[in-house]
Design a protein that fits this description.
The protein is an all-alpha fold. 77% of the residues lie in helices and 0% in strands. It is built from 7 helices and no strands. Helix 2 packs across helix 7. The N and C termini lie far apart (47 Å).
């Protein structure tokens, strides 16, 4: 099926109906395996059992950034290619990405308390993630409070593209500045620095969270399409009643 074929919402909904059961099943299986491995993973020789917060913190950080990257692609589809489902994809991804970014900040604070001695420092990585959360909230406000949905969608798309500049700042902040946050330990030259007994549960948990994101995103897109159809029917009904009473 070509990407342009998914411009038809009805065809897209049929595809979602076929994919969702498989995505849900894969998500459950990955979480069962990942949680079992995480619970049985060894403690870190320095951080002890607190290192297991990583199995929530790292996937949430990844999905917070992935959500904004997906929204940026949807923003281009809205502003440049006028793809009918691009705006739906961007709007549906915003609250999900915001939720994962919030989880990342909370778990990072809980991890930071025993490690750094404080829940919060204005570290470059932490601050740039906080900026990402505020950007998410700004986009959601534009989507939900604009009187003209079309104008709100375009404004949200512009803010999304501008906010994409924050993604490389988050990624490379530990390299550009002297920060408390640990440097890259997985995707780095020379290979990961994490022991395989800790790394593999992290990989499985990251896959589980990614499948969860995909499942929630498709569900949210389906609900948004149906909501817009109901709104269109209500407007048509109101217009018909107005013409009949005129």
């Amino acid at each position: 099926m070509a990407l342009i074929d998914l411009a038809n919402p009805t065809r897209f909904l049929r595809l979602v109906a076929r994919l969702l059961p498989w995505l849900i099943a894969a998500t459950v299986v990955l979480f069962v395996i990942g949680l079992f491995q995480a619970m049985n993973a060894p403690d870190d020789y320095q951080q002890g059992a607190t290192v297991k917060i990583m199995y929530l913190h790292v996937p949430s950080a990844w999905l917070g950034m992935l959500g904004w990257a997906l929204m940026s692609a949807a923003a281009l589809g809205t502003l440049v290619w006028r793809h009918p489902l691009a705006d739906v994809a961007g709007k549906a991804a915003a609250p999900i990405g915001a939720a994962f970014t919030f989880i990342c900040l909370v778990t990072g604070s809980l991890w930071g308390r025993p490690t750094w001695g404080t829940y919060w420092v204005w570290d470059a990585r932490l601050t740039s993630m906080l900026v990402l959360l505020l950007l998410y909230l700004g986009v959601m406000a534009l989507y939900w409070t604009a009187e003209d949905p079309g104008r709100g969608s375009r404004a949200a798309a512009v803010l999304t593209l501008v906010g994409a500049l924050n993604l490389p700042i988050i990624k490379f902040s530990v390299d550009w500045w002297n920060t408390l946050h640990q440097p890259e330990s997985i995707f780095r030259m020379g290979g990961p620095t994490i022991a395989p007994s800790i790394l593999w549960p992290l990989i499985v948990m990251t896959l589980a969270f990614t499948f969860l994101f995909a499942t929630l995103h498709l569900m949210a897109m389906r609900n948004e399409i149906l909501r817009r159809r109901v709104r269109t029917m209500q407007l048509m009904q109101a217009q018909t009643l107005a013409e009949a009473s005129a």
